[in-house]
Amino acid sequence: MSIRLNDMKGFAFDLDGTIWSGEALLPGAIELVAALRNAGRKVVFVSNNSRKPSTELSKKLTQMGIPTEPSEVVAAVEIAGEAVHRELGPVNVLVLGTTELHRVLERAGHRVLAMEEWEHSQAVVVGVDPEFNYASLKYAASAVHQGAKLFAVNLDARFPVGPNRYEPGCGALAEAVAVAGGSRPIGIGKPGHPLFEMALMRLQCQPAEAVMVGDSASADIAGAAAVRMRTAWIQNNAEPNVLISPDWSAPDPARLLELWQTDLFQG
Fold first, then answer.
1. Which of 35, 138, 148, 188 could form a disulfide with 143 if both were Cys (CB 3.0 to 4.6 A apart)?
2. In 114-161, alpha helices (H)
3. pLDDT-derived band of residue 154, with 50, 70 and 90 as boundaries?
4. pLDDT band at residue 159, thresholds of 50, 70 and 90?
5. Contacting residues for 182 by C-beta, under 8 A, at least 6 apart
6. Within the chain, what is the greatest distance between any pair of CA atoms?
């Protein structure tokens, strides 16, 4: 028996490269989300963002024409403190990232150190850091080499900022620290399970009743398949190695909307 999009009760969407690219919505994004909501399907947004919390991401979605509450967004940066706490308890942390990442870690009970205090760190947490430089790499790598656990909010090497335009992602910075420090990073966001499990809780449905819609085969599709969610791949980033076949694929949200509408008409 074939699986139809119309049979699904919940839809989780990645943001960068799936709903928008940089500051521009992808074709059909507004119409697809509206059609699903109008049909009574639950929708959440699941982002590997290491800089912005759900309040900022929901505001951006709303301003771009997709009305969204903060409770409908799950962001990797918001679970960073819990992830470190789960591994190590409350610890001294060296942070490469934005002010928001510092705040998340402090709220979780960790002590954020100045870079010059690297010798006292028990963990290094890496997010996208606009201030990243050789000095911060030196301090972070030295801490990891000394024994501090290395965490990356996500392992994405890059993120889209426009058509065929990308900037270095959190994973690229974490890789530099890992190579220099001699230890592999622990990934916090996708493809790890926690974000998908939180999405399923928000959707209030079973994995087989939910679809993860994303552009990253390695993070969105493989990660969701690992927790037994259905998957829809937005093929706009030409990933060369797709090891897990998605249930559906489309070049953009507009085409996925056509697939959804076809299922409705045939239902």
1. 148
2. 134-146
3. very high
4. confident
5. 144, 145
6. 64
Pairing type for strands 20-21 and 24-25 reads antiparallel
How many residues does this entry show for the chain?
267
pTM above 0.90, yes or no: no
Residue 107 predicted with pLDDT over 70: yes
How would you class 59 by CB atoms within 10 Å of its CB: exposed for 0-12, middle for 13-18, buried for 19 or more? middle
pLDDT score, position 167 = 87
Burial class of residue 57 (count of CB atoms within 10 Å of its CB; 0-12, 13-18, 19+): buried
pLDDT at 241 over 70: no
Distance from first CA to last CA of the chain, Å, rounded?
Answer: 14
Residues 193/226, Cβ–Cβ less than 8 Å: yes
Query: Within 10 A of 129 (CB to CB), how many other CB atoms are there?
Result: 19
In the predicted model, what is the mean pLDDT of residues 54-74?
Answer: 96
Going by C-alpha positions, the residue among 17, 15, 11 that lies closest to residue 215 is: 17
Domain boundaries of the chain, sorted by first residue: 5-48+190-266, 81-187
CATH architecture classification, 5-48+190-266: 3-Layer(aba) Sandwich (3.40)
CATH of 81-187, one of 2.40.128.590, 1.10.10.10, 3.40.50.1370, 3.40.50.1000: 3.40.50.1000
Helix ranges, the chain (H):
29-38, 54-63, 80-88, 99-107, 134-146, 170-181, 193-203, 222-226, 253-266
Q: What are phi and psi of 113, to 5 degrees?
A: -95, 155
